[in-house]
Amino acid sequence: MTKGKTNAARLLDSLNISYELHPYELDESDLSATHIAELNHFNVDALFKTLVLRGDKTGVLVACLPGNQEVNLKALAAASSNKKVEMVPKKEVQGLTGYVRGGVSPLGMKKPHPVYVDESALKHALVMINAGHKGMLMEMAPADLIQAVDAQVIALT
């Protein structure tokens, strides 16, 4: 459990956006969103994972999609004005975001990157995303997430 607030929580506080923090049981051997949802009895369709990618033309970008889905790289490339996008190597994630793998939030990154949220988020009253620390999620309205990071909503899966 983190001590104090994460950058993600501080950002939401500064924007007067309501959220609820949810600590969760962590299994370091499997940090996947599907495993976290299963261990903690969360709805995996509303538990959104955060992926850090790099486009060949635009550089680093962030994708938020349901934990049980895979990102459609071609759709993301087209939406982000790239010919191709690929996952950033794990060793680069912390330097680019300020967050460790398994604790990456689209909110409060050390440098803002374009964020793309899967359109399925709008089907839920609330979604859960990483709060910026392993073992902590934040639940919020999808419209608030989209507003807070100025995200583009597209079909990512």
Question: What features would you highlight for this structure?
Answer:
single chain; 157 residues; YbaK protein; 5-stranded mixed sheet
Characterise the protein shown here:
The structure is a single chain. The longest helix is centred in the N-terminal third of the chain and has 8 residues, at 7-14. The protein has a single domain, classed as Alpha-Beta Complex (YbaK protein). The protein has a 5-stranded mixed β-sheet. The protein is globular. The mean pLDDT is 93. It has 5 helices and 8 strands; from the N terminus they run αβαββαβαβββαβ. It starts with 6 loop residues before the first helix and ends with a strand. It is an alpha/beta fold.
Q: What's a concise summary of this model?
A:
The chain is an alpha/beta fold and 157 residues long. It contains five helices and eight strands, in the order H-E-H-E-E-H-E-H-E-E-E-H-E. The strands form two sheets. It has a five-stranded mixed beta sheet with strand order 4-2-3-5-8. A three-stranded antiparallel beta sheet has the order 1-7-6.
Level-2 CATH architecture: Alpha-Beta Complex
In the CATH scheme, the class would be Alpha Beta
Basic shape: globular
Strand percent estimate = 25-35%
Find the structural class using helix and strand composition.
alpha/beta
- What would you give as the CATH superfamily? YbaK/aminoacyl-tRNA synthetase-associated domain
Name the average pLDDT.
93
Number of strands: 8
Percentage of residues assigned to helices: 10-25%
Number of domains as seen in the coordinates: 1
**Elements, N to C (H/E):** HEHEEHEHEEEHE
Report the C-alpha radius of gyration, rounded: 14 Å
The neighbouring-strand order within the major sheet is 4-2-3-5-8
